[in-house]
Amino acid sequence: VKIGVLGTGGVGQALAGKLAEQGHDVVVGTRDPKATLAKADKDGMGNAPYKDWAAAHPRVALKTYREAAAHGEIVVNATSGHASLEALRLAGEAALGGKVLLDIANPLDFSKGMPPSLSVSNTDSLGEQIQKAFPAAKVVKTLNTCNAVLMVNPGALAGGDHTMFVCGNDRAAKDRTTELLKGFGWKHIIDLGDITNARGTEMLLPIWIRLMGTLQTAMFNFKIVK
Amino acid sequence: VKIGVLGTGGVGQALAGKLAEQGHDVVVGTRDPKATLAKADKDGMGNAPYKDWAAAHPRVALKTYREAAAHGEIVVNATSGHASLEALRLAGEAALGGKVLLDIANPLDFSKGMPPSLSVSNTDSLGEQIQKAFPAAKVVKTLNTCNAVLMVNPGALAGGDHTMFVCGNDRAAKDRTTELLKGFGWKHIIDLGDITNARGTEMLLPIWIRLMGTLQTAMFNFKIVK
Known about the structure:
The first copy, chain A, has 226 residues and is an alpha/beta fold. Helices cover 38% and strands 21% of the residues of chain A. Chain A is built from eleven helices and eleven strands. In chain A, strands 3-2-1-4-5-8-9-10 form an eight-stranded mixed sheet, sandwiched between helices. In chain A, strands 6-7 form a two-stranded antiparallel sheet. In chain A, helix 4 crosses helix 5. The longest helix of chain A is centred in the C-terminal third of the chain and has 14 residues. Chain A is globular. The termini of chain A are far apart. The mean pLDDT of chain A is 97. At the A-B interface, strand 7, helix 10, helix 11 and strand 11 of A face strand 7, helix 10, helix 11 and strand 11 of B.
């Protein structure tokens, strides 16, 4: 499957790497490919520069947001939440329309110090804002509730005995997403309903961040026990 | 131990009933005991009128918020979140000062329809508002992330293999709370730190409410898998 992954950070790398490994035809998108490849330093999250990752993944091309989105039958928003709407605008409605758009970003606001708050929450969500801005895209919110390693390899924790959520307005888009998630190893997937449920999953981030501090690891996840 | 439980709804009944069963000396508090005992109808959540519960629990007295709080070495805020600050004001700072104050309420706002949003969240929390309003109380936020049955009987789900959170500014108050929780059967208790972490646990409610709809039961809980 042709997939465009928007975002070159740890999350974008994890998704693009796993999808390419599974035989998908992956193009990663960024604002300015030359600038991204010129960066020599680690990013703010401690990830190695993208060019190192790219050298290890020669089959994954780096193009503009627009080119990567146009390439994909499925498009993954793996940009930082604060930059997502702008990145998607650069991708353009024409390149997103009719596509399954996996939104795995979180609207974290680091501007008021640590731990971050959410820039949108409670009565709205980033997932809804994206769906509203790109009504022809089939937005599915998922994978935003655990770290990048677990997103694509849930079996690395407790044999995969923990939970992933999906929500979105389009049934077929959610089915396709669920298929991808199962391919990653997700066993417990809960469909919460329409995209307004992104409020619920994005609002998991405040406790996720606090738990990362308390547990001193990002290798944990929520399991819904029922 | 002398315990005052503020609130006569399903949560107050569950807590007061369990604590009395464990041999504690429990007084339940309400705004107007005569009015509470005069109610003959089920409440908005479908709970039987308090007088039926009271008849089945003759050792638990019903008094005013102030009397119940004054009675307790430990005070439990089991009122509705939207009414908590007012109930605690009626209890009075003198009756709360120096006490362990378990805050198990959630700031649910039903005024904009279902599902409810939170009346405070993200950059503040009900737990913090209570601590700020009653600085001499030792507020511990806990038990707000599951239904009333599981609060006092976690073993009723998956043998208790799920998680409870505590947070608060006073170490000894959290230790005492943890002791009570263990007495209820809680095995996995995570101390998130100070009372600002109530933002994290209260923000679990939006997904909790959505999961209750999706799963068609309130008998579920979060487990932190690590």
